[in-house]
Write a structure and sequence with these properties.
- There is one protein chain.
- This protein has about 450 residues and is an all-beta fold.
- The protein folds into 2 domains: about 5-70 and about 285-435, Jelly Rolls, CATH 2.60.120; about 90-285, Jelly Rolls.
- About 0% of the residues lie in helices and about 45% in strands.
- It is built from 1 helix and 35 strands.
- It has one helix at about 430-435, and strands spanning about 20, 25-30, 30, 45, 50-55, 60-65, 70, 85, 90-95, 105-110, 110-115, 125-130, 135-140, 150-160, 165-175, 180-190, 195-200, 205-215, 220-225, 235-240, 245, 250, 255-265, 280-285, 285-290, 300-310, 320-325, 330-335, 340-350, 350-355, 365-375, 375-380, 385-390, 400, 415-425.
- It has a 9-stranded antiparallel β-sheet, with no helix packed on it. Strands 1, 7, 8, 26, 31, 32, 33 and 35 form an 8-stranded antiparallel β-sheet that branches.
- A hairpin with a 5-residue loop joins strand 5 and strand 6 (about 60-65).
- It is elongated and about 70 Å long.
- The chain starts with 19 loop residues before the first strand and ends with a helix.
Length: about 450
């Protein structure tokens, strides 16, 4: 894809040339290269102390080594798209044997067959077939405690379509099939849509659920649950059914589904897949930043920030793109706020200068820009002016951060994908800001 195509139909050569431009494409271990400047001053340092996964150009999940920037090709609808930089916080998979359902997982009334092609393009996919209405896989999780939020996810593919193939996930207390407290969410694998949900007892609250198309017939099924007390025995379970009856999963003999990649993690978002075997596994956070020699690419008295991001998860708070002096004292940053709002903040010597919030957004691709100069800030999203500020100073900045905190530490990570970023050392006009951000 041509470098300029991510900016739509705007002829950037008719506007000032960016002082810094990154459309994620070229990298090596610990480094993400900028297209501008070509001197290397705009190349970003990437740190992550563990391996992590991404979706490659063929549409399969794969593992990359520590320190490798994750150019992720996943696009909505399961279609491989242009690469975007995946930036995530630290996360841990608490579900053991995430691909082997014959060991730690306790099974009842299932026929389990291994050796099917998985989203990893290996043969670790598993077919589960119910031979009773009580068929299930179950695993005890000791880490579920009062006040915590957990997200349970599973990759699944339709089995017996004659039975409206689906899968249901539960987080519950107790070991019985007809548990007294817990929550269930079902997923229609024949249509790729959410099924019904149900809650029994008190203390378990389903706060979010989604199903994502990963291509090749595979969907990632996600449910997020908050627990208000510490269960004596907490469990996660998987059943080959999309039916819910009396707030419980209703498995039918003969129901089936292909499954792979079970993951239970703390938090309200299903992050990239973390494989496990006999113990939980942690993926460290991605930290992407550049400082020092890049100061010349940052407009010190006036300038423009541009970011194109693929937002699906809306964690809050989370950074999108920003410049700073390496602290939170002097900065201009784009971030998430509560209620799925995109926010512009500017600070000089710890004093707030600009604080503008967008309206609540839905998932999608956003083109965001802020033009700044003394007493002249303007904030645009997708061609529309969000707000202005005519009484505001400009901070002195020497560092740039992508998807993580302006202090350079792993914190408030975006947990989503960055398609492009650019800086200008001039404040673009409002007409240019509107044109630059128009989808």
């Amino acid at each position: 894809m041509p470098v300029w195509s991510l900016f739509g139909n705007i002829q950037l050569l008719r506007m000032p040339t960016p002082s810094l431009l990154i459309v994620p494409s070229r990298f090596k271990s610990g480094k993400l290269y900028s297209q501008i400047p070509t001197s290397g001053a705009g190349d970003f340092t990437v740190t992550r102390a563990t391996a992590a996964t991404r979706v490659n150009a063929s549409g399969y999940i794969e593992s990359v080594a520590s320190g490798i920037p994750r150019l992720d090709y996943f696009a909505s609808g399961g279609t491989v798209g242009c690469p975007a930089l995946l930036v995530e916080p630290s996360g841990s998979n608490l579900a053991l044997q995430s691909e082997n359902f014959l060991t730690t997982w306790l099974q009842a009334n299932l026929v389990i067959t291994t050796g099917y092609t998985s989203p990893f393009n290996n043969t670790n996919g598993t077919l589960i077939e119910a031979n009773s209405s009580t068929a299930r896989l179950r695993q005890t999780i000791a880490a579920i405690t009062s006040g915590t939020t957990h997200t349970f996810s599973l990759f699944a593919q339709a089995g017996n379509l004659a039975l409206a193939s689906g899968v249901s996930l539960t987080i519950q207390e107790g070991t019985a099939t007809n548990y007294a407290s817990g929550v269930v969410q079902s997923f229609r694998l024949d249509t790729g849509t959410l099924g019904a949900s149900g809650t029994l007892g008190a203390g378990f609250t389903l706060t979010r659920a989604s199903i994502e198309n990963y291509g090749n017939g595979w969907y990632r099924c996600n449910m997020t649950v908050t627990v208000s007390y510490t269960p004596a025995s907490a469990n996660i379970s998987i059943r080959p059914t999309s039916a819910i009856a009396s707030n419980l999963p209703a498995t039918v003999s003969g129901g089936s589904a292909y499954i792979w990649g079970a993951q239970l993690e703390t938090g309200s978002v299903a992050t990239s897949y973390i494989p496990t075997t006999t113990g939980s596994v942690t993926r460290n956070a991605d930290v992407v930043s550049v400082s020092g020699a890049v100061s010349g690419s940052i407009g010190q008295t006036q300038g423009t920030l541009y970011a194109e991001v693929d937002l699906r998860n809306f964690p809050s708070p989370a950074r999108l793109f920003g410049i700073s002096d390496g602290t939170s004292n002097n900065r201009i940053i784009l971030l998430f706020n509560t209620s799925n709002r995109i926010r512009l903040l500017a600070t000089v010597a710890t004093a707030s200068q600009v604080d503008i919030n967008s309206s609540s957004q839905v998932a999608g691709i956003f083109k965001i820009a802020v033009g700044y100069a003394l007493n002249d800030y303007a904030f645009y999203i997708n061609g529309v002016q969000v707000g202005t500020d005519t009484i505001a100073l400009v901070p002195a900045c020497s560092s740039i951060f992508l998807g993580n905190a302006e202090t350079g530490l792993a914190g408030s990570n975006i947990n989503d994908r960055i398609r492009a970023v650019a800086l200008y050392t001039t404040r673009l006009t409002n007409a240019e800001l509107a044109a630059l951000t128009t989808p």
